[in-house]
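lol forgot to send this yesterday, sorry. struct tokens for the thing we talked abt
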């Protein structure tokens, strides 16, 4: 794996280094984890469709298809869950 130099403010570097040290990991590992945790625009574009697909598979409900009865049921269940 090739290394790269990233230029940033020293305060940013110090904050990341402190976070890494607190976790007992290297700054390199902290940056790797940070990069893995963020999504790029093309990945964010895939999320809504993937979420709809999972929802269809688990429940049979597809929010993209108009269904007043299913929408009302979902709204009621969300309301019940937020009250509990």
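and heres what i got for the seq, position by position
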């Amino acid at each position: 794996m090739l290394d790269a130099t990233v230029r940033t403010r020293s305060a940013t570097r110090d904050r990341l280094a402190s976070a890494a040290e607190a976790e007992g990991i290297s700054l390199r590992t902290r940056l790797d984890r940070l990069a893995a945790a963020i999504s790029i625009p093309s990945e964010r574009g895939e999320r809504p469709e993937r979420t709809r697909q999972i929802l269809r598979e688990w429940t049979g409900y597809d929010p993209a298809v108009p269904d007043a009865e299913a929408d009302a049921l979902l709204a009621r269940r969300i309301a019940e869950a937020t009250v509990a």
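The first helix runs from residue 10 to 23. anyway ping me if u want another try
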